[in-house]
């Protein structure tokens, strides 16, 4: 015989499981998918018109690429309706200069909608997922969480502000202890 709380807990668990299954059906992407030069047309240029594609050009030996990739991985998980792909820069564009990586190309409806060379637009070496999200959505609704509406940018802005305030509070606490 089960107690009343146990029955309620099982029912809540079943409802949550159903929600997760439904979310899994709607999520199209959710990761930064590695592609090759031969995959580019199919994965990027021929993506459906309702899909924004964020293309990350990188080189493994460049530390800034690792930093930006970490940010993009977090964004890809959060915004699973936006397609994130990564490709070695010279596999995508022969002779692409290493000084230009990392680079992000934003595609929609088979056209380049944005180009970001380096980390400057994202806050330099202090870039965060939030700063990358703000830059990507500066002029177009690139990021899509599948929930609809314009709440994506509002959530990113709120999280960015919370992070900045937290960093300032930490600095003040460190200064007070000196």
UniProtKB/TrEMBL annotation:
Q: Which SUPFAM superfamilies match?
A: Thioredoxin-like
**Start and end residues of each Phosducin domain:** 23-117
The record's section on Pfam families has: Phosducin (PF02114)
Lineage, top-rank taxon, reads Eukaryota
| A biological process term (GO) from this entry | protein folding
Record family assignment: Belongs to the phosducin family.
**Cross-referenced PANTHER family:** VIRAL IAP-ASSOCIATED FACTOR HOMOLOG
This protein's name: Phosducin domain-containing protein
| Organism listed in the record | Aegilops tauschii subsp. strangulata (Goatgrass)
């Amino acid at each position: 015989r089960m107690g009343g709380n146990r029955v309620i807990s099982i029912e809540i668990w079943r409802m949550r499981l159903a929600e997760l299954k439904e979310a899994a059906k709607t999520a199209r992407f959710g990761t930064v998918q590695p592609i090759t030069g031969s995959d580019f047309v199919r994965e990027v240029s021929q993506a459906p018109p309702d899909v924004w594609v964020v293309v990350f050009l990188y080189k493994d030996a460049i530390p800034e690429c690792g930093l930006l990739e970490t940010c993009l991985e977090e964004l890809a998980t959060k915004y699973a309706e936006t397609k994130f792909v990564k490709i070695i820069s010279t596999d995508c564009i022969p002779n692409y200069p290493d000084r230009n990586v990392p680079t992000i190309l934003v595609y929609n409806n088979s056209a380049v909608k944005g180009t970001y060379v380096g980390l400057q637009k994202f806050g330099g070496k202090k870039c965060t997922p939030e700063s990358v999200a703000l830059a990507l959505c500066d002029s177009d609704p690139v990021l899509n969480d599948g929930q609809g509406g314009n709440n994506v940018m509002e959530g990113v802005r709120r999280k960015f502000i919370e992070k900045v305030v937290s960093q300032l509070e930490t600095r003040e606490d460190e200064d007070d202890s000196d």
